[in-house]
């Protein structure tokens, strides 16, 4: 009975409130300022400056590090904010195709406040080969916003980062070491840097200088094909890790997929929780299947393109070859930037399915890590 009474009282009050809704609104509008609302707000302007999406960057300097590695320093249009370990997408037009690739940033986050950012590139693949052979100071490129989660996270990570780098995988760790040395981040960093031969070691002097100037940085060089004084010999495995590391740590791995498979086994005895083993994703390459040609019908905005595709290459590569401007960042299925709607056709994934469950359910795919298995029709967002 009491319950019914309460319900009636509240129902009556709601009715009164509802009756006053329109007069109250009119009164508030009448009392409001006659000034029109601002067209933009400071917070939005700041966000646009900090995260422009893309900006132009001029290649200012090229330095040869090893026989097949160079560091490219760019002058960006605006200050550039990133966390040590992140990557950027560098792009330009090459022979009529718009090409871009993600590269880990090798410079310090502090240098980017003065608009300088460096990328260290090993000569392999189409775009890296273009940079290596044809790029010169003064060339203008497109630089995407920094992306990626391959960073030290003070809340989630141990205070000690054990970084394991293979070859040019040293790049993000060089950035982290600089950030530790200049006080941008606060953690201990032990880098295990594996290379085949001494001549392939990048940033040797720079890393030694950083380690000499900070008790938080240590670098262990490991050569697999040579025995030299000052270097460990062999592969980076459990025994070597135990020789230099004790206590709690987070492992960060940057190298090839076979290196990751090997290290999975070597790290298993340390019983680290999965979140304490981070691996930088590698770009998806070609797949080893017999050649087959398909046609992709690609809708971008109001335009439709017929794109020839090869079963061995990803859908993203096919679209770029055809000169289409399509979005891409990580090229590894992780960022979702290339997320496109499948209208019809069949495809295969390169490796694990990294799409959200809803994307898979409602027919979205990531062209960067999908290979065509038939003619296909896709709706792709504009870059
Ligand atoms: S470019 Fe990152 S998911 Fe495709």
Bound molecules: FE2/S2 (inorganic) cluster
Order of SSEs: HHEEEEHEHEEHEHEEHEHEEEHEEHEEE
Number of DSSP strands? Answer: 19
Give the amount of beta strand, in percent. Answer: 25-35%
For the biggest sheet, the summary is: 6 strands, antiparallel
Radius of gyration: 26 Å
How many H/I helical runs? Answer: 10
Unreliable segments (pLDDT under 50, ≥5 consecutive)? none
What does this structure look like?
This protein has 383 residues and is an alpha/beta fold. The chain is 27% helix and 30% strand. Strands 4-3-6-1-2-5 form a 6-stranded antiparallel sheet. Strands 10-9-8-7-11-12 form a 6-stranded parallel sheet, sandwiched between helices. A 5-stranded mixed sheet has the order 14-13-19-15-17. Strand 7, helix 5 (171-181) and strand 8 (188-195) form a beta-alpha-beta unit. It folds into 3 domains: 47-144, Translation factors (Elongation Factor Tu (Ef-tu), domain 3, Beta Barrel); 160-279, Nucleotide-binding domain of ferredoxin-NADP reductase (FNR) module (Rossmann fold); 293-379, Beta-grasp domain (Ubiquitin-like (UB roll)), CATH 3.10.20.30. It binds FE2/S2 (inorganic) cluster (FES). FE2/S2 (inorganic) cluster (FES) binds next to loops.
């Amino acid at each position: 009975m009491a319950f019914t009474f309460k319900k009636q009282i509240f129902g009556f009050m709601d009715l009164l409130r509802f009756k006053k809704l329109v007069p109250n609104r009119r009164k508030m509008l009448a009392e409001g300022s006659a000034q029109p609302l601002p067209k933009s707000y400071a917070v939005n302007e700041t966000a646009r400056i900090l995260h422009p999406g893309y900006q132009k960057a001029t290649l200012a300097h090229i330095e040869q590090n090893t026989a097949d590695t160079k560091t490219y320093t760019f002058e960006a249009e605006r200050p550039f904010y990133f966390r040590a370990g992140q990557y950027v997408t560098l792009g330009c037009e090459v022979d009529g195709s718009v090409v871009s690739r993600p590269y880990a940033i090798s410079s310090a986050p502090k240098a980017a406040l003065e608009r300088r950012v460096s990328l260290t590139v090993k000569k392999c693949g189409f775009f890296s080969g273009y940079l290596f052979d044809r790029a010169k100071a003064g060339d203008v490129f497109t630089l995407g916003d920094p992306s990626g989660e391959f960073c030290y996270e003070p809340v989630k990570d141990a205070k000690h980062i054990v970084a394991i780098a293979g070859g040019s995988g040293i790049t993000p760790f060089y950035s982290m070491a600089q950030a530790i040395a200049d006080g941008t981040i606060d953690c201990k960093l032990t880098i295990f840097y594996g290379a085949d031969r001494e001549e392939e070691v990048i940033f040797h002097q720079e890393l030694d200088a950083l380690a000499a100037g900070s008790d938080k940085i240590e670098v262990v060089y490991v050569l697999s094909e040579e025995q030299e004084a000052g270097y460990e010999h062999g592969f980076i495995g459990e025994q070597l890790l135990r020789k230099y590391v004790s206590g709690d740590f987070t492992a960060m791995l940057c190298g090839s997929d076979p290196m990751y498979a090997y290290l999975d086994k070597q790290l298993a005895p340390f019983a680290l929780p999965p979140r304490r083993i981070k691996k930088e994703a590698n770009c998806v390459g070609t797949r080893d299947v017999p050649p087959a040609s398909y046609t992709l019908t690609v809708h971008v905005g109001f335009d439709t393109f017929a794109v020839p595709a090869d079963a061995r290459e990803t859908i993203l590569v096919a679209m770029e070859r055809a000169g289409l401007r399509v979005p891409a960042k990580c090229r590894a299925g992780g960022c979702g930037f290339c997320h496109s709607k499948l209208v019809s056709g069949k495809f295969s994934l390169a490796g694990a399915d990294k799409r959200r469950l809803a994307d898979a359910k409602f027919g979205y795919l990531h062209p960067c890590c999908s290979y065509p298995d038939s003619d296909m029709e896709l709706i792709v967002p504009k870059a």
